[in-house]
Amino acid sequence: MNITKLAHYSIRTTDLPASLKFYTEVIGLRNGWRPPFDFPGHWLYLDEKDGVEGDQGAVHLIGVDPVNPQGLIEAMGDRDIESLHGSGAVDHVAFFAANLTEVRENLARLGVPYRERTVPTLKVHQMFLEDPSGLVVELNFPFDDEMDA
């Protein structure tokens, strides 16, 4: 497997407006484009040239909607709201990667479970697995219409 670079990190938050304000006004990131996921959130970018459709941002804020959590649960899995404090709020770490078929074969050989999905608006195929501490690791592979997803 070829990890090419860190893609982003994601924070699951019960106070999306406060998190957005902190990362934009205090840290200086810029709110930008985000795919039309079925749960609230923001993708934050480092500078003005980032944030057009297809970019992935540096920080993903994932909003927990207590009234309608199903979209988030289906996309990212369920998490106990009480665990979303300190480093427990870090939802996942993502890497750009290559050689999807090789990675699938290696994970099968090692018996490591994973979930997959394709985000067509990003042209990326994603694989999610957990490290031994339960931290979700997301691998992002380039996607084109010809690949075997």
Which SSEs are present, and which pair or pack?
Blueprint: E1 2-13, H1 16-26, E2 30-32, E3 41-45, E4 59-63, H2 70-76, E5 90-98, H3 100-110, E6 115-119, E7 124-130, E8 136-142
Q: How large, in whole angstroms, is the Cα Rg?
A: 16 Å
Structural class: alpha+beta
CATH class category label? Alpha Beta
* Widest beta sheet: strand line-up: 2-3-4-1-5-8-7-6
Q: List the secondary-structure elements in sequence, H or E.
A: EHEEEHEHEEE
The named CATH superfamily: 2,3-Dihydroxybiphenyl 1,2-Dioxygenase, domain 1
Helical segment tally? 3
Rounded to the nearest angstrom, the distance between the terminal CA atoms is 17 Å
DSSP strand tally = 8
Classify the fold: give the CATH topology. Answer: 2,3-Dihydroxybiphenyl 1,2-Dioxygenase, domain 1
Low-confidence residue ranges: none
- Overall, the morphology is globular
Q: What is the second-level CATH architecture?
A: Roll
The largest sheet, given as strand count, sense and whether it forms a barrel, is: 8 strands, mixed
Range of helix content: 10-25%
Number of domains: 1
pLDDT averaged residue by residue: 82
Report the β-strand fraction as a percent range. Answer: 35-45%
